[in-house]
Amino acid sequence: MNPGPATYGAPNSTRPAILIPLGIVTLIWGSTWLVIRDQIGVVPISWSVSYRFLVAGITMTAFALAKGERLRMDARGWRFAAILAVAQFVCNFNFVYRAEAYVTSGLVAVVFALLVVPNAIFGRIFLAQKVGRQFIAGSAVAMAGVALLFVNEARVDPHGSTSALIGIGFTLCAVLSASTANVMQGTASARRYPMATMLAVAMLIGAAMDAGFAFATTGPPVFEMRIGYIAGILYLGVFASAIAFTLYFSVIRVIGPAKAAYSGVLTPVIAMLLSTVFEGYRWSTLAVAGAVLAGIGLVIALRARRPAR
What's the pLDDT tens digit per position in 39-91? Predict the structure, then answer.
């Protein structure tokens, strides 16, 4: 992967143009864990993932056409879109949905916060982005907070140890898949193509792959004619996919994958806050301490003058 222009600098990370979309993405993705949990049941997981990205792909196609973008790419663009589809819209979400079948949504969200680690490592390897001391310090503080949240969620998880290990394993696979897609957005190849067009094509390719996998493993399509399920598909497809990924990948192209991944550090905190409202979640001392440390680490890391090329 070849690095793009040297656009990663300190001032960019704390501009409203960066913080606002990153905040929107964090709020949206912090709410998806509850919605995903509701999707698991009647409909096989892979079919739910396929429906989600079919809706997302159609939404992005309409958006691209409204912007006047042509839905045409060269062979290199199609290849890039296919790899992005496999990493982000097939492997990542099939792993995440399966993880939630074994452990609580809160535990999945907490483990997924580790995305900042492979993003920083891959960004250093493939994008030549150096990681400064302040970023490392902020990451250490945030990871300490994530560790406390992890311990807290693992203690209250109603599943057994075997289920917990399987769920965590699926989540870690999802993290690596998502990190691959994140770093791809920081390359020169990603910048050659309009964001809306690239995402529309990648999401539709991903939906087709998800459907093929679902058919091969579970049989013909299954759909639940329940208002909650349909609303969940629409929310996950339009808001959590089409809108969120457009904002998130745009931020990655400005500040790099390591800093952008910090949306995932606060995501479990948002998920737990929503769980407090809708599921009666009770905050322990560990959970509060973890949330506070995650927030402090986020502020320290985002104010760092690196990663830079």
Answer: 988 999 999 999 999 999 999 999 999 999 888 899 999 999 999 999 999 99
In what helix (H) or strand (E) does residue 162 lie, and over which residues does it extend? helix 161-184
Q: pLDDT > 70: what percent of the chain?
A: 90
Distance set, CA 234 to CA 48, 98, 227, 248 (Å): 11, 20, 11, 19
In tens, the pLDDT along 243-258 reads: 999 999 988 888 878 7
Rounded Cα gap, residues 241 and 277, in angstroms = 24
- Rounded to whole angstroms, the Cα distance separating 35 from 80 reads 30
Closest CA to 109 of 196, 167, 70, 160: 167
CA dihedral 167, 278, 156, 235 (to 10 degrees): 10
pTM for this structure? 0.82
What Rg do the C-alpha atoms of the chain give, in angstroms?
Answer: 19
CA 274 to chain CA mean position, Å = 18
**C-alpha distances in angstroms, 278 versus 34, 181, 214, 267?**
9, 32, 31, 16
Q: Residues with Cβ < 8 Å from 184, sequence gap 6 or more?
A: 1, 80, 83, 84, 87, 190
